[in-house]
Queue: 2 jobs
Job 1
Amino acid sequence: MRPTATQLFLICCSTGALRLLGAKAAEKPGDAESGLVVFNQCMVCHSERAADVPNPGPDLRGIFGRAAGSVPGYRYSRALRNARRSWTDHTLDAFIADPQAAVPGNTMPFHGIADETQRRDLIAYLKTLR
Amino acid sequence: MKRLPHRSVVVVGAGVAGGLIARQLALRKIDTVVLERGGDHHGGAEGRLPTQRDEMRWDIRTGLMQDAAKETYTFRRSRNEAARPMRRLTAFLPGTGVGGAGSHWNGQTWRWADYNMALRSRLEQRYGSGAISADMPLQDWGVSYAELEAYHDLFEKLFGISGRAGNLRGVIQPGGNPFEAPRQNPYPQAPLETTEAGSIFEQTVVREFGYHPFPSPAANSTGVYVNPDGMRMGACQYCGHCDRFVCEANAKGTPDLLLFPWLARQPHFELRKYSQVLAVEHDPAAGRARGVRYLDLTTGEEYFQPADAVVLAGFTMTNTRLLLAGGIGRAYDPATGTGVVGRNFCFQANTGVAVFMPGRWINPFLSAGCTGTIIDEFNDDNFDHSGLGFFGGGYIGVNVGSGRPINARRVPPGTPRWGSAWKRANADWYAHSFAVGVQGSCYPHRENYLDLDPDYTDAFGQPLLRMNFEFRENERKLSAYCTAQAERIARAMGATVVGPAAPRSAPFDVRIYQGSHITGGTPMGADPATSVVSPRLQHWDAENLFVAGASVFAHNSGHNPTGPVAALALRLGDDMVRYLEKPGRLS
């Protein structure tokens, strides 16, 4: 069934609303210390330091500002290899909020973090990883 | 042969035992070299997605195991049979590479019941001095659980073990194993999730029989965990590719994840991979080992590594073979019951009863190595054996460890072996079946032993080890008894179909996997006439030669062996520090 004009309008509105929320999340500075606690969920697969043995997820040092799918030697999904974006406040926030919606078909087995403050803190922490 | 510079300690084998000993030595900055015949599994196809999930490559074709084309064992059931080599290793699976069998294990980490290390005394006290058959050379280990408690505790912390305490400083804990030996501390991590099959088992045994089910203790990490050495584990993803696989999520406690990367940073430690140890060089007159002779498998060059002390920490079979081939200690002779090397060789009497419940979603693909719910009411001497005609027992429980497509398929009895009816049964029952399993103990028998094969050699020209083993009357009776208990529980679950109870019986079938928990061959004990190593794991005939691993067990319990292997190895590491400071017989 084709969507009606009203439905299309509603979809556009909700996407716009999401964008606005994303922008709002990036405006207030996050708390890196609280972000470290949030990062516990990520540590299951990602390392923020030199790893002794390969981890399931790519190394997150230098993630902020880096092009998506660009850690040398890491085997990314086709979706992330072709994502053509760099990791900014906006793109990270969208990806962490709902990984499958942000980059459909990526293989990171994580459902996302719904809480906006937690995401903001986490991104603040990710910025500290060099 | 090239003679290398002298080292303080040379350890044979980079598995659980070798890694833990090396850790204790490294803490004291003692110069140590570990020789490992294989390579490193991390970073290769076996440790990455998607290739890690290849059941055919790693499980069916045993891609991570000892290569039987190079090194295998011969087998016979009695002394009047001719032994034949196992062309494929299937009954048990020795590992190879950094981590040893501890890299492809499931992770069940037990503390055995505290009487286990003085089992002979316990049984004689409870059932009379004549109760133990002359054919069953049970012996006390010469070490008590109390001496090992702190090492069990340390191991659980190092490997991030998850579980629920059953006996905390003598106080029985709800939801834990009431037969557990008393522990000072709870497990460092919370237990794994309970599976649907585990819940069915739990409800049945509590409701119908009043037993005490508990979650299996596991080296499957239930969260992000950092161990006392600062080594980190991820969280288990319940992917069902645990035993026979390398964990790509770094969520399984293994030496290759938690010990060797840490050791690599220590200043006086060296790991030499692809080093096949050929012999322990030994000076019988002086009662000392001089060092080990090994082959560099990458160059084919042979080396002699002299050392102040030598530790054999290979797989059960390897330790025994090296001592027999080197003529260190007297070989066991079953005809006279004299000699020691090769005696008290034990397997396990493991069985299962299949349960089919169409209304319940078992979903076996969603599991960790040790997602098990278990009772210990029928293990070892936890129940009265008066009038039963056997000793020992086993844990009974539901372990849903994998739903892999080739091996994890149960079909009800009477299903055709091929064709559309077989396919339909697979589709119908895959998600709706499981097994009530028994891990049965195995106590020594004078005719179950290891010796050198007179005919066959390995790729390096060394004689193969010959396994002389049969399920004797004791194990047949205990398996019949414990499997009947499992069947009784299975029938009380309200299942549509319960598979036939098939206890272990003679003849022992070496083609069927029955667990890799083989023990003995170099038993420990206080009497040099019946043991290879002292209670301090020091060889009776060579004071600077030590043996670690399940080969020192004097019998096998109805629990996996890794807990005691680890505790004994950590204690040996500390003992060796004492030995190197002041050489002599350790007491």
Job 2
Amino acid sequence: MRAGIRGWYGLLLMVFGTGMSGCVEQDSFTEIDTGDVADRTFEWNIPARFPLPREPDANPVTEEKFQLGRHLFYDQRLSGNGTFACASCHRQSLAFTDGLSQSVGSTGQLHPRSAQALVNVAYNASVNWGNPSTVSLEQQTPIPLFAEFPVEMGLNDANRDAVLARLRAEPRYTTLFAAAFPQQVDPVSYDSIVLALATFGRGLNSFNSPYDQYEAGNEFAISTEAKRGMALFFDERTECFHCHGGMNFSISTFDRTQTFADTSFFNNGLYNLDDRGSYPEGGQGIYEITGRQGDQGRFRPPTLRNIALTAPYMHDGSIATLEDVLRHYMAGGRNITVGAHAGDGRNNPNKSGFVRPFALDEQEFSDLLTFLETLTDDSFINNPRFANPWEG
Amino acid sequence: MGLKQWFWPVCLCWPGMAFGHGATGDSNASLQLGAALSLNAWSAGAADAQGYWRIPGVLMGGEALPVEKGIVLEDAVLWGAYRINDQTRVQAALASHDGGVELEQASLGYQTRLAGQPVQMTLGLQAGDFTPSAMTESGSGQLLAGSLLADAFWGRSFLDTGLQLAWEPYEGVTLGAGFWNGDAFPASSGEGAMHVQVQWRRPVAGWSVEAGGWAMQARAEQRGDARYNGDGGHSHAGSSAASPVDVRFDGSTRLGGVWLDVASPVWNDWRAGLQYEAVRVRPDGALSDGSHVADWRADDTGYAITPGIRYGQWRLDYRFERLSLQNHLQGAGAAVLADESALANSRHPKRQSLQLQWKPGRAWTVQAGYTVDQTLSGEHSGRYGLGLVWQDVLYERE
Amino acid sequence: MSRSLRLLVPVLAGVVLSACGGDDNSSTETTLTIPFAARAGAVDIACGAVLPALGTTGLSGSIADFAFYLHDVAVLDRNGKSYPVTLDANDFQDAAGGVALLDFQGKTDSCQGADKPVNHEVTGTVSGVKVANITGLSFRVGVPEALNHHDASLSQPPYNRSGLFWRWQSGHKFMRLDVNPVGKVQLAYDSNGSTESNSWFFHLGSTGCEGDPATGAVVSCANGNRPAVQFSSGFSVNNLTGTTVVLDYARLVQGANLGQDAVAPAGCMSGLPDVECVTLFSSLGLPFGTAATAAQSAFYLAQ
């Protein structure tokens, strides 16, 4: 028996010894290799936890192009008649929109659309209210410059050379253009102007609202009411997040870690002129490009960041206040009873399935509004980096 | 991967449990019907604050749901086995887990001879036989806390439709193989899996020694986390959304393991035992969530060691389980996907359990245990559990 | 040398030389100028010219804008085989892309501004065919798909004519033929507060385009709208100049009423819901929606 017990003891030792060492002591780790996706030598104004937007191969971002773009953005000499700048419809204090329901061009022509807020536009999967073919800032930039129907900045074949001559005459531009496009002999050209303005737009990023601070870990950055409003926003009852979800509060967002972009367009029941779902002339959504009746009234959902600053709302500015926007969605669409645009948008056949009526009591209504207000980023509208360089 | 990686500890052990809910193979009855019920009560749940149990560093799925606080009917099974003739038998089991009754097993078994030695073939919906913890569920009474290796690597239980073969060329040595449709995690339905295994059950000088080794390969296509997303799962992408993002895996997973179950001879009603199991899992493929993709390969190992002693109807076990998880993600979407699928990790998730079990009769088992669960990051508090298992043959006919 | 040999040499030389000169389509290269004319009936189109008898109501009008792009220019021999013309590089032609701009608007600002250059011809070289064997001509109107949606085209001729940008639809207008009819165009709808338009526009371009944000470019257009024009006979080259190709605006709009417009915009800008486009597309031999495709009739060869 003794020998048996001793043998048993020895075996026991061997067991635990080998058992423990037999399980090779391995590290636990996760190695993530994203290539050069996270390169941040440019001052994007995007916190590290968010993925960066795309950069086109033909127009990589540089600080010099950004500064040139910024100078051009605020320069009235870039318009045909010298009275208008990009900033005339895109004002920093209003998150780069103009507070009008429909913008007015340099020659006084009325635009069918409300100027979009230039907030995080680098992430836009498509860059117009209703156009599935303009998918980059470089495609968009010439539109306001050269458009004729209506005239916006008013550049055309007659004055384009004269406008370039104005820019050449400005000594600051000699340095700025040369720094931005060092390989070009004569960098003052419309191609350079477009690339510089697009780069400026790419740098206008806003991720520092009280909501962002809350998400980053500061429990007290937003009020309890706002937290309740946030729960309502991400709820299946309101369905807000379905079109205005994600880090950019719009699902039409595309960053450089993604392989597939959602160029989404939704009809939210604003009009229904003929019970076939038609929208008024000039504001028919992507139908104007595709010609398909089912595309009437489908527009891109813009970001809700800084939404409290960008009244009036919708593609034609036809909803004046944020409260009215909420009531619109609560009703599941807009019923216009009198006038040229009469029709019940709630019955629009092309209306997105996510726009359904829902009820909110007074407290919930107020909470949801409070939440939307926490998306206002004061550091964005006051950032001197985006301000007018010609003043002081 | 190979048996050489793990040493072959000769040790004190515990006799293995009867596996699964099926009838024991030795019965002479032509028809057997039985049932099993398992009731658990826990003082705390295993899930995180949002109610999800995703161990950082490993992509889980299958049915590896966390224990819940309170009293839960863990398992209710009705099984039957019918012998058609000497060689052929059918077996089926109806089970209810978390509400809803489903056909859990339905198989046809056929016994014949190969090179003079018996070979058993089983075709149909059945449990995988490659390792003990693939066949036991927490309700079968072995361990109240379940198996962390099973939960992490094959979704707790391996139930699939396929063909299993077991051939006993020598007394106590079984060679087996399985060919599966892929319904069980880590495969995905239709993609298939297959395994091979060897088992050794022979007493050595009065000691009961059972050991085995196995290897499996499983393919998956668009495999999600069936616990939370499933197919066509509605995922709410958004920084405030609580529901996990639906990340899908395409690729293959290779698994392999060894296990050992040793029990000492009985001495004055005392017996000591040791169980050891180690598994290595290597997935290799791509992850996607609809708008990001990344290449992913991982090298995970886990082991569980359970020494215990038994005296009469009483049994005391201590189990220690630990995982080492190495993940490599590559691609533009790597950081986002690592975050969404909870693969970012630098810890060794582990769990320790102490359990006291009393088996007053053939049918009843009472368990009381205490578990310190460090599988999720954060605070680690212990939880108490009580388990009651009843299993019996209700009807038997010659 | 003997007498017979002296005769032989010129004979042999003749045989050899004719053998060299020989095959119909050996390595010949010819410079070629193809003149284009734009007319309305018999009247040449230019700023200020009064174009009579336009459309179904026979209105007169004058142009505001008149230009179009061509590409894939080729000459045809009597067997129908085509030989591509390599365009020269100049301010109105992209030699590498094979695109030419024909511009008949002599003044800027819708013919109200200062003088500006016009271009009435396509110049290039063609090889592999003898001049005498050229009997036909083919080309396509517009900018080819591969070049239509490139960035950096704002400054490079011939793409830098701002009036032919069509950024809203992404790309270039292939034809811009804007005419101001006498009595203006009466609109059946309200356009920015007015029910009249000075001009009856014809802007031809690709529609139904979709972009791919991953590449930042347009990837496909449902309707290319690039009319193919082919003359199998009647085209000949004399003194390095081909037969004049005429674009007859009157033939283009013969089925349209230039004094009215039912669907915005005034005239036709290629959009599918625009009913005024049906007859114009038909004159160009282009399909439009569900309308049957006819043979093009707007271009013809001068006699």
